[in-house]
Design brief:
With 327 residues, the protein is mainly alpha-helical. The chain contains 18 helices and no strands. It is elongated.
């Protein structure tokens, strides 16, 4: 969600509060919006969402698009006023009608989520298209997703690649990883593993967890690049620290099998447990087995059964069969 925008370069570096306040009192909409931002964010003044609403409203009533957008964001998030999605849509619409791209994007989100309006993916697509053509990179990303999934528009992988590329080339990490997936799978573009790794790397270096996992997996399985367990562990570790359950599980596998590391059952248990605690059924089964065998952890039949039960509850077929045989 995009909110609390300032499009005024005059006050961008060093704010002269007295000067802004004087201009705001003179009905300068730009200054009124800027004063609202200062109150909203507590920049150089005590944070006060009610005051922010007051100044945004003054500027918005003069037709100032950025203030209309910011007022919509305040209503959407319930800051300085009771949350009201209908009012948020109303103010976003006023700004969007002035070709204010962040509001067009936010309207796309509102229609996508059914906030303040009936959920309508076709309408969401229309607003994202408007914002994307106005240069909003996140709208470009979302258009790519909608084309890829056929949501609100006829499915079209070529168009998905086109929009992912626009956003990816402007540094949007999620667009970069999505573009990598398209290159890896050959959807909408000629399959190119080198390009896939290139885009995964760009996104991974921006701390995108999915890209980090995908890089780890490519080096782990060696299907599209030369197998390299050291690089696999490096990228899995980065994603795992962000809580990625698949990376945590795969680190457990690497330590259990000694892939690129000395075999270490205690480390394997540690990573399987992290994944198991997030609900991964196979990791839960593995933890049950390790408790049962005393592998990497002290043997404990009670805890073993407990984890087997968790795995069974999550649909693990082998755990279900095993539970049926336990006393």
């Amino acid at each position: 969600m995009i909110l609390y925008l300032s499009i005024n370069s005059v006050f961008a570096e060093k704010t002269d509060l007295n000067h802004i306040y004087k201009l705001a009192l003179q009905e300068n909409a730009n200054a009124q919006n800027e004063l609202g931002i200062l109150y909203a964010n507590g920049r150089g003044i005590s944070q006060n969402s009610v005051k922010a609403m007051e100044w945004y409203s003054k500027a918005a009533d003069q037709g100032y698009a950025a203030a209309q957008h910011n007022l919509g964001a305040m209503y959407e998030n319930g800051r300085g006023i009771s949350q009201n999605y209908v009012k948020a849509v109303e103010w976003y619409s006023k700004a969007a009608d002035q070709a204010f791209a962040p509001s067009s994007y936010n309207l796309g989100l509102m229609y996508s989520k059914g906030r303040g309006v009936k959920q309508d993916h076709t309408k969401a697509f229309e607003w994202y298209s408007k914002a994307a053509n106005e240069g909003n990179v996140f709208a470009q990303l979302n258009l790519g997703v909608m084309y890829a999934n056929g949501q609100g528009v006829i499915q079209n992988d070529v168009k998905a690649v086109e929009w992912y590329s626009k956003a990816a080339n402007q540094g949007v990490a999620q667009a970069q990883v999505n573009l990598g997936i398209m290159y890896e799978t050959g959807r909408g573009i000629t399959q190119d593993y080198t390009k896939a790794v290139e885009w995964y790397s760009k996104a991974a270096n921006q701390e995108n967890t999915l890209a980090q996992f995908n890089l780890g997996a490519t080096y782990h399985n060696g299907l599209i690049v030369k197998k390299n367990y050291t690089k696999a562990r490096e990228w899995y570790s980065k994603a795992a620290k962000h809580g990625d359950v698949k990376s945590q599980f795969n680190l457990g596998i690497m330590y259990a099998l000694g892939q690129g590391v000395n075999r270490d059952d205690s480390k394997a248990f540690e990573w399987f447990k992290k994944a198991a605690e997030q609900g991964d059924a196979q990791a839960q089964f593995n933890i049950g087995a390790m408790y049962s065998n005393g592998q990497g952890v002290d043997q404990n039949e009670y805890l073993s059964k407990r984890w087997f039960l968790k795995a069974a509850e999550n649909g693990h077929s082998q755990a279900k069969s095993l539970i049926a045989t336990l006393p």
